Amino acid sequence: MAPDIKSNTLLSPIDAARLLNIHPVTLRKTRINGTIPLPFVRIGRSIRYREEDILSFIRANTHTGELSR
């Protein structure tokens, strides 16, 4: 069975940050600190994020109504 290429699209940190609407430096810091459980792929010295992982993260962290404090 062939992989679903669209769901496995690899994004650069800049494109991933743009999709998350955060600054690329913020994304790098969260990766280093582990503060956001967002999987990433290391290819040599390059970091890439699967588009589907980012979309899943957004869906899992979408809230309606008031957040508890």
Give a verbal description of the structure.
The protein is α+β, with helices and mostly antiparallel strands. The mean pLDDT is 89. The chain has one domain. It contains 3 helices and 3 strands. The protein has helices spanning 13-20, 24-33, 51-60, and strands at 10-11, 41-43, 46-50. Helix 1 crosses helix 2. Strands 1-3-2 form a 3-stranded antiparallel beta sheet.
Low-pLDDT stretches are none
Largest sheet: 3 strands, antiparallel
Broad shape:
globular
Rg, alpha carbons:
13 Å
Count of DSSP-assigned helices:
3
Q: Kindly give the count of domains.
A: 1
Quaternary structure classification: single chain
The proportion of strand residues reads 5-15%
Q: Please give the share of residues in helix.
A: 40-55%
Separation of the first and last Cα atoms = 46 Å
- Would you count the extended β strands for me? 3
- State the strand order across the main sheet: 1-3-2
User: pLDDT average, as an integer?
Assistant: 89
Protein name: Helix-turn-helix domain-containing protein
InterPro entries: DNA-bd_dom_put_sf (IPR009061), HTH_17 (IPR041657)
List the helices and strands and how they pair.
Elements: E1 10-11, H1 13-20, H2 24-33, E2 41-43, E3 46-50, H3 51-60
Antiparallel strand pairs: 1-3, 2-3
InterPro entries: DNA-bd_dom_put_sf (IPR009061), HTH_17 (IPR041657)
Protein name: Helix-turn-helix domain-containing protein
Organism: Sheuella amnicola
Note the main attributes of this structure:
69 residues; 3 strands
